[in-house]
Amino acid sequence: MTSHFIALEDWSDAELRGLVTLAQSLKAEHFQGGNTPILAGKTLALVFEKPSLRTRVSYEIGMRQLGGNGLSLSPQEIGLGKRETVADISRVLSGYVDGIMARVFDHNTLLELAKYGSIPVINGLSDSHHPSQAIADALTLVEQLGDPAGKTLTYVGDGNNVARSLLIYAAVMGVNVRIAAPEGYHLTEDEMDLISERAERNGASFTPFIDPIEAVTGADVVYTDVWTSMGQEEETAQRLKVFPPYQLNLELMHHANPGSIIMHCLPAHRGEEITDAAADSQQSVLFPQAHNRLHAQKAVLAHLLGGVALT
Ligand code: CP
Ligand code: NVA
Question: Ligand 1, atom 3: nearest CA belongs to which residue?
């Protein structure tokens, strides 16, 4: 059976930790000037239904650094599900390339690509999950905190795709995870159960909050993301009314632990979910976090397309 990287739920704790270890070793190799061409002759198709900077560049350049090629396809070019069915596109691409990385509106589109094709499918963000981001976040936690197990991470804001994947990955790394979101914008009960399960299995805890100050008190990491995700633009006005108490600003950070760090997947809507002062503060690791996308994505590619084992 072909392996895919569509949702973290499909991956065991050991595999997820193994991906981070692989990302660390690929990063070290990169900075020692020696990317091994383990993907020589391989091509990844990058399919986008939404805009992207980090995901597109990190997967495309990641392929190149490992000796392969990335081919980006915009929605206008292939008309996913419009000009042609998702199933047919997947069947066709399976004869041309060695993997598909796709950024889609509906998570089911990824499941369909996987069902009808015969090559690995990688989730470059769907409405419900962003595992490619989460592995880079896990790598950043390890770099910034040493062993992150036993530390506390609070995600403040919308219970969205980024939150869902982040909280699972951090829980697998043994981090105590919390979320502060307004009523109506939390993860579902089932999703919270999944996070709790992973956390408890790894000696950690998961706690949901409504009050952001309570949630941030005692945190070592405070993380936020946009209040309105791509595809939700018609809800912008309503969300702008609800979310301001959840802004990540220096006042909120005063409640976190001394030496705590600030994370954000980017792109940031500065002045909304995060202030300039917080994003550009000494505590911010936004850019090392973004740079880690490259090394994290190379780990996914090396494993799925290059057959590199996880240890
Ligand atoms: N964080 C992230 O996925 O960035 P892009 O939308 O620019 O790819
Ligand atoms: N939650 C955001 C993440 C962007 C990387 C969105 O889906 O638009």
Answer: 55
Q: Mean pLDDT, the chain, as a whole number? A: 97
User: How many residues would you count in the chain?
Assistant: 311
What homologous superfamily does CATH list for 133-290?
A: Aspartate/ornithine carbamoyltransferase (3.40.50.1370)
CA atoms of 287 and 262, how far apart (whole Å): 11
Residue bearing tokens 């009960």: 189
Query: Does 133-290 match 8-130+293-304 at the fold level?
Result: yes
- 8-130+293-304: CATH topology: Rossmann fold (3.40.50)
Q: Parse the chain into domains and list their residue ranges.
A: 8-130+293-304, 133-290
- Please report the beta strands in the chain, taking only residues with DSSP state E, as ranges in sequence order: 43-48, 69-73, 99-103, 121-123, 152-156, 176-180, 206-209, 221-224, 261-264
The reported pLDDT for the residue numbered 76 is 85
| Region of residue 125 (phi > 0: left; psi between -120 and 50: alpha; otherwise: beta) | left
* pTM confidence score: 0.98
Please tell me the predicted confidence (pLDDT) of residue 2.
Answer: 62
Q: Are 64 and 46 in contact (CB under 8 A)?
A: no
Nearest alpha-carbon partner for 215 in 184, 260, 259, 161: 260
Residues with CB under 6 A from ligand 1: 52-55, 125, 133, 265-267
Q: What is residue 85's predicted lDDT score, i.e. its pLDDT?
A: 95
226/229 Cα distance (integer angstroms): 6
- Strand order from edge to edge, sheet including 121-123: 69-73, 43-48, 99-103, 121-123
What is the tens place of the pLDDT at every residue in 144-177? Answer: 999 999 999 999 999 999 999 999 999 999 999 9
3-class DSSP assignment, residue 4: coil
Nearest CA, atom 2, ligand 2: 229
